[in-house]
Amino acid sequence: MRVQRILTLDGGGIRGLVSAIWLEALQAKLHAAGKGALHEHFDLIAGSSTGALIAMGLASGMPAKDITTLYEHFGDDVFPGAAERLWSRVTRSFTQGLSAPRYSPKGLERVLKRVFSDRTLGSVAPRAMAIAYDTVARTPLFFKSFKPEHADIPLWEVCRAATAAPTYFPAHLATIERRRRALIDGGVVANNPTACAIAEAVRLNDDASLKDIVLLSVGTGQATRPISEREATSWGPLEWAIPIIDVLFDGSADSVDYIAGQILGNGAYFRLQTPLTRGYDDFDSVDQTNLMGLRRTAEAHLERKETQVALDRLVSLL
User: Fold this and answer.
1) Cα dihedral sign, 214-142-126-60
2) Mean pLDDT for the stretch of residues 252-261
3) What is the CA radius of gyration of the chain?
4) In 3D, which of 113, 166, 117, 177 has the Cα closest to residue 141?
5) What is the pLDDT of the chain when averaged over all its residues?
6) Degrees (nearest 5) of the Cα angle 141, 143, 144?
7) Percent of all residues in the chain with a pLDDT value above 90, rounded to a whole number
8) What is the 3-state secondary structure (H, E, C) of 261-301?
9) 270 and 314 in contact (C-beta within 8 Å)?
């Protein structure tokens, strides 16, 4: 089957809530048009980092509203508060050293196993792809539901590897394709997986034409917090350790948006993204103030006439 309708999902930690709310709105429009479930209208769903979790959730049949609930109610399990985080780091320092990752992966793994149970990558439909990076081989790893060697990989493990953001979580150790790997967040490769998804579509299709592709790229909110001149000129390795991850992830997403807009300039490329004027741009801020801010940011973007026009046109093409 040709790949003509593509959905891609950016990384961004808890900011995936923004993406989920936008997908809920798209699902509502599809229902209103009598077009059924969202995932049935795409031939390929691809995600990086938190977007990989959303991609696998959709491809495994989760309604968008359930994904929204996941972000709003289980964030504390993945990103526990200061006291629990401090105790976790103290206990992990004996095995991981004083510079241990900010979070233990146990909470994340519990949530992923609760969501996906024993589902495997080969069981999803439509085609789905998630991105991780192998620090041992120093190469990207593209998890593909349509690759026979990946069919039996548990979905929770795909998402654990794809969301292991450096400094936040330790790498995920796994044997994939008979090779032992240490896998970290795919955002270091492509926090916006759109270009990777387009390349995969061209490979899978019988011809290299892009003219029939309709693509929706969903962001997680654009960081707006400035890094001052003083900070940018005086920070060393310790100060840059966590901010550099956010800078690299957001910067790469913007460049891919530009590329996709140029090569799919036929009115069939759609990008949902907006500045984070209410919510924080932190990947791990799960307090209720921030969650409400992220929700309001997503809803405010949906209230814009331009957004509604774009979504209506997208629904007409799906």
Assistant:
1) negative
2) 84
3) 19
4) 177
5) 89
6) 135
7) 67
8) HHHCCCCCEEEECCECCCCCCCCCCCCHHHHHHHHHHHHHH
9) yes
Specify whether the CB–CB gap between 15 and 220 falls below 8 A.
Answer: yes
Residue 46 phi, psi dihedral angles, 5° rounding: -125, 140
Report the DSSP beta bridge partners of residue 215.
6, 269
| 33-71 tens-digit pLDDT | 999 899 999 999 999 999 999 999 999 999 999 999 999
Whether the upstream peptide bond of residue 126 has omega within 30° of 0, thus cis, is: yes
> What are 133's strand-pairing partners?
140, 184
Token pair, residue 187, equals 């955002």
Query: Taking the mean position of all CA atoms in its chain, how far away is CA 268?
Result: 22
pLDDT tens, position by position, 89-121? 556 555 555 567 789 999 999 999 999 999 999
* pTM of the predicted model over 0.85: yes
- Cβ 100 vs Cβ 90: under 8 Å: no
At 280 the pLDDT is 74
Tokens of residue 107, six digits? 């909470």
CA distance to 10, 186, 295, per residue, from 20 (Å) = 11, 19, 10
**Phi-psi label, residue 177: left if phi above 0, alpha if psi -120 to 50, beta otherwise:** left
Residues present in the chain in total: 318
